[in-house]
Amino acid sequence: MSQQGYVAAPPYSQAQPGMGAYQGGFGSGPTQPLYGHYGGPPQAFSAPPAGMMKSSVAPAASMPLPAGSSQYNPNVQQNGSHPQSYPAPPAVSAPYGQPPHSLYNSMASPGPPPTQQLTNQMSSMNLGSHGKFSMCSFYFLVQGLQSPPPPASSVMPPGLQSPHMSPLMSPPQSPPESMPMASQSMAGTSMAGMGRPFPGPPPPGPGGFQQPGLGSAGQPGYPQQAGQFGGYMAGPQQNMPGAFPGAQSAMAGPPQKKLDPDSIPSITHVIEDDQVKQGGQVFTTNIRGQVPPLVTTDFTVTDQGNASPRFIRCTTYSLPCTADLAKQCQVPLAAIIKPFASLPKNETPLYVVNHGDTGPVRCNRCKAYMCPYMQFIDGGRRYQCGFCNCVNEVPVFYFQHLDHMGRRVDFYERPELSLGSYEFVATLDYCKNNKPPNPPAYIFMIDVSYNNIKSGLVKLICDELKTLLEKLPREEGMETSAIKVGFVTYNKVLHFYNVKSALAQPQMMVVSDTAEMFVPLLDGFLVNYQDSRAVIYNLLDQIPDMFADTAESETVFAPVIQAGVEAFKAAECSGKLFIFQSSMPTAEAPGKLKNRDDKKLVNTDKEKTLFQPQKGVYEQLSKDCVASGCCVDLFLFPSQYTDIATMADVPSHTGGSVYKYSNFQIETDGEHFLRDLRKDVQKSIGFDAIMRVRTSTGFRATDFFGGIYMNNTTDVEMAAVDCDNGVTVEFKHDDTLSEETGALMQCALLYTTIGGQRRLRIHNLSLNCSSQLSELYKSCETDSLINFFAKSAYRAILNQPLKNVREILVNQTAHMLACYRKNCASPSAASQLILPDAMKVFPVYMNSLMKTAPLVGSTELSTDDRAHQRLSVMAMGVEDTQLLLYPRLIPLHNIDVNSEKPATPVRCSEERLTDSGIFLLENGQSMFLWLGQASSPDLIQSLFNLPSLAHLQGHMCALPELDNPLSRKVRSIISGLLEKRSNSMKLQIVRQKDKPEMLFRQFLVEDKGLHGGASYMDFLCYVHREIRQLLT
Ligand SMILES: [Zn+2]
Fold first, then answer.
1. SS3 at position 929
2. pTM greater than 0.70 (yes/no)
3. What is the average pLDDT across 174-190?
4. Residues around the ion ligand 1 (C-beta < 5 A)
């Protein structure tokens, strides 16, 4: 039987020579080659969307300008040439020879013999299933084989530890005195003249590395390897079942020592250390390729020429110079862009540049927008584009003299010359039909079928809207919101409401022909809330009563979205639908769904169908929505399976969100839902957006992941994009990159503001390039890597068996680390596990990712929950994926109630719990208060006003407001978290050993998975083995 295998050689198509044992042969499922973009195979560049060019009439809006900005409105006639329509193909497109490949491309390559062996081992490991994975344990020693291991604590007392090094991270050969070697690596050697404050690259040149190649190792004396640690593997522990076959020989080993979980790299330490080192500091973006503080660290950003890490984060800030190097290390090259990220109050909002009817200055060839990477020459009359190198004439209105440094004298007065992020007012060329857009509209569409009425949900929504609509987002400086509002109720038919301000009573119009949806009224449907407040109040009061006696339990869904699209089309505006739906649409209408949940498919090759949306109606609907700038947010209140994979299809392609409240009950879920609704309605957001990522020559964006829609291979379309939406962009080489010029990217987002203005938001970022892989590894950002892996794996499960996807994740983890070991680490005993400092906690995250509901094949998990999580993650930014994959576990029993400092989280493992402890756990989606069975009655009294745990009853979802320091402190921690996270979380209170505790335990991600999957320790052992296999 010929076996087709998946090569864990993601971005790049071939395994490197010498690592042949790694190639092919993993897994045995049928291959599903290439999963393309949604909507079909990538197409050649297509014409810009109709109606985005021509004619220019002055947009008169004046924007807030920076101080001393009198020169910002040059408003001088442009010299002839019209700005071209938005998105145009970059001129640079050296043939890379291949269509964009992505992570899970298949490759039918016969694996060399060793592969088979690995395959067998893999299958006996069965990573995804429960209890078969323990096979080894680590015995970490501080020193290498040659010298005996002093106890870690005596080698490096806590006070001496570098913030980034745990004792076992010290280099194997260093004597204790040289421990500050940590600082050696952390202070970094600077790139000539760059003064990097972060772990820096080594000086290039003779002292550096050999060209990474077969068998090459770092040269002696090379001062890095902060993150390596020695570890001997011993044979399987007796109490660990399922010993790994063949593990013994590989783990021949040294003295049997008790396993110390503290000796393996800890995310909580990494987070804490970075907070200590960089917390509260200013991160200035004036240095190319500068690695920002962790996403969890509290810092302030000053924009000095590169976009803030809040807007763009990268998997590495030093790209390998060649495709070969990239292929060799298999570290994905990607950026996670959050174009609308919220900025803290102490950071400057984006400046808006208005060039009047001439529009922004752009490179004639590649259409990149004016930015700090344009080099002015010839006395300021011309400029060379940093992206395509084309030399352009400076438009007459834009001319300015250069100073003695060759810099324009207005450098600091123009955001587009000196900042990483800013906005341009778009001219009519950038507007649909060359007309300025109308302000967007929000339509509230409430399912009034029996379930929603009975649960009290309809009344809850109507009551809330009265106050919430007062808080619609508004343009800065405006007194009221320009957003229009409209209302629809529905079950099997749709009811539209005329709420024109002149009416004394709202009027209802019913459309029962759901096959041919239309909007029965234009005037009076979408109104200004302030003008129509009285009529709207009246309507919101009446709706719950109107349907109080309904017996209708069937609903439609697709026609509801269609109605919204038609309404926006008729009003010539973009906007958002807020749909509150109780069940799967089973009424006879387009988009009718039936129950196709089938647990028998779990762990089979057909499992992927559970994640695939039903084709047809919803696919077309997504297209229509994106074309008319209609974003869909779905609030679901299901009591059973609702086929979320299909129902969430439109939201997930329109930049919308899906919220799910299973078995909704007002008492326990009402407040939770309202918090979500309030956040959602008030979010900062842009509409009818189209994004293009341009790059300098040598590499380009090849793949995109997010709540997006792609009509071609380059334009990322989003009906809306809000402050939480993150788009992950993968890059590939098409040529050699230069160490000298580095690599540049520019993300341009054309969108409509909430006030109805068309704008371009520009984010620029410059990265380093290096022919040394060590540079890449040093500049990696694990949190970004994991975001990329989560999204690419979650997309891959649409087309491949989960088992294959998990294997690819493991193999790539091993490969990336093996490549570091081989090319960047100094020689050391094979038994040592050596990790790059910047990636030392990468394995924890990868292991956690593989244990998430979508990736774990378990019949105990609800299909809807899995589909829901899959889709939510696709649109997440780095902060959200980090938190999701490594929850915060905060001890509360010993908290200092007087301290302002946030409580320090501990590792997510059962070992950290104590019977007498009380812990809070949250991951951005769920929140638990865990009460140890021996918690002190005093604590219980303070928190619950109850004499003991035994008195705690019922489903409590909030702590009582008690007037004592502990209660106040804990409640303030909880409310602080709810405030900070993008979603609301329902507080679930669980007692140790009670049944619901299982829900909590699945978030202890360092432990063995509840539904399968290895513990962190076991996973690390396994990865170590894989690495050793790869290196022999
Ligand atoms: Zn250019």
1. strand
2. yes
3. 29
4. 363, 365-366, 368, 385, 387-388, 390
